[in-house]
Amino acid sequence: MKRGGIIVLLLLLAGNLLLPAPAASAAASPAAAQHILLLYDSLAKGTGKEGNVAELQRLLAAYSTQVTLKNISDYEQGSLTAYSGMITVINSAELKIANSAYLQDAAGYQGSVMYVGYQPPDRVQQALQLKTDIWHGASASLSIGGFTGIPLEVEEMPYITASQGGRTYGGWSFEDGGVQIPYAVSRGEFTYMPYLKQGDLSSMAAAYVLKDWLKSSARPRTYLVLKEIYPFSDLELLEQTADRLYQSGIPFIASVRPVFGNTDFPAMKRYLEALRTVQSRNGSIVVNAPAVRPPISLSDRSLHDKMNSFINVLAEGGVAPLGMAAEGYWTYDKEYSTAGMGFFDSAVLYADEEARYMEQTDTSVTFPSTVYSLPLEFLQGISRTGKAMPELPLNAAVTVDLPEDEAALDSLMQNLGEEWYTFADYKREAHKVVTDINTVESADGVIYINGNNLNVDYTPRTIAADYQYQEKQATSFNKLFSVQNQFFIIVILIALLLFGGLLTIGYRLYRRKYLK
Amino acid sequence: MIDNPVKTSIRPGITLASLRITPAFAAAFGVLLVTVIALFTAPYVGMADNGDFFRIIYSNGLYFNLPDYDSQYFGYFIKQFGIYQYYNENSSMLVSSQSLFIKLALLFNKLLFSKEVFDIRFQAAIYTLLYVAAVYLLIEAVTFKMSRKRGMIVAVLAVFIFGDTGYTAYFNSFFGESLVMVTMILVFASWLLLYRKRYNDYAMLAVLLVSTLILTTSKQQNAPVGMVISLLSISLVWIRRDKLFRWVTLLSAALMMFAGIATYLNISKEFVNINQYHAMTRGVLMESENPETALQSFGINEQYAILKENTYYDQYGTVDVKSDLLEKDFYSQYGFVSILKYYVTHPDQLGLILDTAAESAYTIKPAAMGNYEKSAGKEFRAQSHFFNVYSTLKEKLAPRTFAFILLWMAVITGVYMPSFVAAVRARDYRGMQRLFVILATMLVGLSGIVVSIIGAGDADIAKHEFLFTLAFDLITFQVISSVIGRGISSRKSMPAAPPSVPAPEYAALNNGVSI
Predict the structure, then answer these.
(1) Are B154 and B104 members of one domain?
(2) Which neighbouring-strand residues pair with A200?
(3) Are residues B282 and B161 part of one domain?
(4) Taking a C-beta distance cutoff of 8 angstroms, is the pair B478, B459 a contact?
(5) Could you list the residue range(s) of the whole structural domain that residue B170 is in?
(6) pLDDT tens across B230-248, in order?
(7) First and final CA of chain B: distance in angstroms?
(8) Is some CB atom of chain A closer than 8 A to the CB atom of B74?
(9) ipTM higher than 0.85?
(10) Same domain as B375, residue B297
(11) Which chain B residues in 298-317 lie under 8 Å from chain A, judged by CB atoms?
C-alpha cells in the first residue's frame, strides 16, 4: 500500500508536470482587475526625468493594470474612491501641490498608495518613518533582483536616508563608497520610491516594486522580439535569422509591419511566404502597429477595416498573428486602442518614440496578456549575480531589429549565446485574435485558425512574377475595328494623294496664268 | 525695328460724367466688384486648409488659434488666425515670396485691426488690388487699338473668366496659387504691353522682371518658370536699339534664371521627399505594367511594388514615410532626372500619365476644399457657386486628353505663326514678341503639368496643375479677343505697335494674326 501510495503520488506529480502551463499568466494575476489613478505634478519635459511618467504607464500596463492618468491640478474632489490604488509622481523639488481637493482626498485615502519622486507627504513619512535627502552627485550604483552594482547617471536624485519597519527594495551605493541605502521602501498600504528614470535600470527596479505593490503573483516570462520586419526587408535574411534562432533553440516573436493595399501582388505573396517560414522556425507572429501620420483630421476612421483586412490576409495565407505590438501611447488613444488593437487580447508595448494621438484618452485599455519591452542593448553585459540572465519581474520582450546583413546576424547570435537568456515561447500562452471572418487562437504551443489546428511546418514556394498588374480592358469587335482602321487609313492616304495632286495642278495653273 | 517712342493715339472709351471708361477700366472694375462681393461680404468665400497652411504661416508669425481647427481641415474656410506674441521659434519651413505678402498683410492687420488676431481678408484685399491692376494691364494690352464696342465685349469676357470665384477664392487662403495667379497675369500682360509698346518699355520690363521673380519663388514647383521666361525673354534684348535697355534686359533674364535655379536648390528636404514619394508611388508605379520591373530599372528592391498608389499623407501605412529605411533603400535610388529618363524610355507610360494629368488640367478650384466658414451653416466641404459659371463650364466641357492639349498648342502656335514669320522677315523684333509671350505661357503651363507628374505623380494634381489651367485661360482669352477684335486673318488688322517704320514695311506686319 505504501509503495502504491508513492506510485500514486509520483503519478500525480508527473501529471501535474505534464499539464499545460496556466493559460495567460497575466490573467491569473489579481492585478488584472485593478484600476490605478496615476497623478503627476509635471512631466519634467526637458529634464533628465522626462519620460518617467510614461515609463510608469508602460510598467503598469505590463501588469494588466488599467490606469487613469491625470495632472494633479486636474484632480476633482471625491474621484479617488473609484480607484483601487493611487500613484503620485512629484518631479519638482520645489513646487508645492496647490490642489486642495487632492490634498484632502489623498490624506484620507484608504487604498494602496505609492509616491514617486520628491516631497513625500507627511502621512507617508510618518507611516514609513521616512527621512530623505537629495544626492547631488553625478552617478550612483543600483542593485536589485539579480542585478548588482549597475552604475547609473543620476541628477539631483532624491533618496531614502532612513526608514523603519517596512520592506525595502534593492539598494543604492554612491560613488564615494558610502553605505547602501534602499531603492524603495514599503509598509502596509504605503510605498515610497524616490527615483525613476526612463531607459535605465531604475525602471526595472520600479518593476520589482510595482510587482509587490500590485500583489502580482503571475510567473513572468521573457520573450525575444524581432522588430522592423517590413515586406521590403531582406526576406532571405529574415528566413536565415529565423533558421539560426531555431537551430539555437531560441523561440522568438516576429513583429511584422502591416500592409493595407496591393495584398494580391507577388511582393505580398513573398512576404507571406517568408512569414510562414518564420512560423515554421518556432517564430510567433505579432502585428506591428502601422506607421501613423500626425492626424490632420478626425475623419479618417479606416483603421479598423485596414487591420481587419490585413489580419484576414495573414490568416488566409496560413500565418497566424497572436497579438499586436505598438507604442505604449496606443493604449491611451480611443481610436487606436479600439479600431487598431480591438482584435487582439495580447499586446507587446514598446516605448513611445513619438506620440501621434488621434483621440487621446486619460484611461488606458488593458489586455489580459501585455508584455513590456526593452532593447537587447539594455541587458547586454549587465552586471548580475550569476552567469544566466536574472528573471525579470514582469512579462518582458527583449527587442532587437532584424539584422541588416549576415555580419549583424552573426553578432546577434553571438550576443544571445553569451548572455544566457531564457526565452519563452509566445504561442505557449493563450492568445486570441478575432476578425469578422477569422479567429486565431493559441494555447500550449498549438495554433488554431477558425478551430483548425495550424500545421506550422512549411517548405517555401517560389512566387511567380507573372502577375497581371493592369487589368486588360474588355474589348469587343476587335476584328471589325481593326478592319475599319485599315479601311480609314487607306481612305485618308488616297485623300492626301488626291489633295497633293490637286494642289500641284492648281499651283501649275496659277504659275501659268500669273507668272508668265 | 520699332523702337521710337510714339505717343499713344486716343483710345476708344465712354465718357460718363467726365470719367472715361475704357474696356480695361470696365474689366478691372467688374472683376473688383465681383471679387469684393464674393470675398468681403457674408457668406465669405475662401478656401479650407488641406494641411499645407502650417508650412507657410508658422514661419510668418501666425498660428492656428481655433481650438477645433483640426476638425475643419478640408471642410471649412477659416478667416482668422493667431499672431505670435513671443519669440517665434519656427524657422522658415518654406522659403517663398508669398511670405512678403503675408507680412505686408500682417502689417496692415496690426495697424488697422488687431495685434493678436490676423484676419486673412487683409491678405485678400492686397491680392485683390494687385489682381485688379493685373487685369487692367491685361485688357489694356489685349484691347489696344480695338474699337470701343469690341473692347467692351472683351472686357465682359475678361470679367467672366477672371472674375470667376474659382480663381479669386484662393485670395482667402494661404495657398501659393493666389500669388501665382496675380504674377502670371502680370507677366503675360507686361510682355504683351512690351509688344504693343503701350507704356514705357523700362517700366514694363520692370513689371515683367519683378512678377517673374515673385512667380518663380512663390512655389518650389515654379522653378522651371523662371528658367523658361528667362530664356524666351532674351528676345526682348533686340526690341530697342539703346545699349542701356539691352543690358538691363540681359541682366533681367539672368536674374530670372538665377531665381529659377535658386528656387530649385532651395527645395526643402521634406518637400522633396513628399514629391519624390508620389513621383514613384503615384507616378511610375501607378501606370507601369509591371511595377517590379520598373523598380528594378531604378535599382530598387522589387518588394517596394507594395507601395503602389500609396500617398505620403496616408494616415496609416506600412512604413513611416520619413524613415531611415526609405531614405537608404528608396529615396536615395532615384530623382527627378532618373524619373524623366524613365518616362522618356517608356513613352507609352508617359502617355498614360499625361492623360491622367489632362483629366485634372482644367480644374481651377479643387473640390476637395470647402469654401465657406463653419458659421455659414453649410455642410462640410460645401462649394461656393457664386459667379463660377466659367470654371464650371471649363471643367465640364474641356476634352480631357493630353492629345487635346497638344492639338491646342499646335493650333495656337499655327495661328500666330504667320504674323511671327512676317515679323522675322521684317526684322521686327517687337512684332515677334507676341508669339514669344504665348510660347512662354504655354511652356510655363506645360511645365506645371510635367513637373507635377514627374515630381509628384497624380497626387494633388488638380492643384499642382493650376499654372496650366491659368496659362490655358490666358492664351485662350488672348485668341478669342483677337477674334473679337478683328477676326483672325483680317486684312484690316492693326499693327502690334504704333507704326514707326515706313508704310511698305508696316504693311508686311499685317500678314497673319493681329487684333
Answers:
(1) yes
(2) none
(3) no
(4) no
(5) 18-174+370-385
(6) 999 999 999 999 999 999 9
(7) 20
(8) yes
(9) no
(10) no
(11) 301-310, 313-317
